[in-house]
Structures are given as C-alpha cells and as structure tokens.
Hints:
The protein is an alpha+beta fold. It has one domain. Helix content is about 20%, strand content about 25%. It has a five-stranded antiparallel beta sheet. The radius of gyration is 17 Å and the shape is globular.
Amino acid sequence: xxxxxxxxxxKFSCVHGCSDCCIYREYYPSVEFGKIGVLILPExxxxxxxxxxxxxxxxxxxPRLAVGAQSPEQVIAYQMMGKNQDGDLCPxxxxxxxxxxxxxxxxxxxxxxxACRAYPVIDDDDKQATLDPHCQFCSKFSTNTADxxxxxQELESLSRIKATVKAERGLxxxxxxxxxxxxxxxxxxxxxxxxx
Length: 196
C-alpha cells in the first residue's frame, strides 16, 4: 500500500449496498438553478438515447452548458435528468436487481457515460481534481485523490471531460436552469442563464 500525506493510501471501492451516486442529484450551482442531471457529452448523447430506446426506458436529456457571444449558440454539455419528479434516480438504475457490491445495478454499466466513469473524482472550485464528499467511501476515508489508490480510470475520464467541455476565448458560458427539485418557488424558470 502506498503512503501519501503521511498515511497509507486506501484503495477505492464502492461501499457495500450504496447506490447514492445513481439515486441522488444535487442543486448546482445553487438551488435557484435546480437539480442537475448526469453530464452527457455531445458525442455521447445519441448513444445514450439509443441505449434507452433499446431497453424501453424513457429519458429526459436537456442542455447543461453552451457557449456563444450573445446567446447560447453551441451546446458543449447535456444532462440526463433523473426519472423522479424531484430530479433523483437515474433512469438506467435497475431498482429490482443488485450489483456485485450490493447496491442497485446499472443496466448500462459497460456503456455508462464518461461522467459516471469519472465518479467520485470531481473538480473543486479551484479546478483541481478532488473526491466528492457526498460519496460514502470518500466521506469515510478522504476527499484527497492522493490518499486513495485505484482511481486512474476515473482521473482519465475527468481529464477527457475537461478537454471537451471548455469555452473558447471571447465566448460567454451559458448554464441551463432545470427548474427541477422540491422548492420550485425558489428556482429560476427552465432555460438558459448567462454565467457571470
């Protein structure tokens, strides 16, 4: 076992019985924008929609980020919304079948989106790779990637996302407000908002 930060690194693995990352969605960047869905890259969108059609699953994929000088002219990321009215629960999660780790099984695990492959590695506000504190494993062991082994695939997936989801100089970034969640009165209407 490698040593990082003066303590032994622990190998990442899903906590037995946990499916939290596939069930719960967060309000981002604030409650006003509503809950976000799983990030879907433009080149993934058609494949994910085809998988849903083949499995008879209803999907809601909406824009997430776009760039443009005066308006959202080019979508650079989409999001797959949860199937519950509050925005939670991935449509591909089999609620009647368990995965080897005891959590609910993903029906498209081998073909899951890059964002799912990257999890629990995320960007923090400083644009550094860190681990999601909402992940049960990470909240128990560490949110520092240097303290956890076995994250190479996740780090590579995040790197690919960052290389794709970026804005050219001179273009504004637009974020799509989902109007999804429990307190709709506090949210912006569904649609594009210019990021400040």
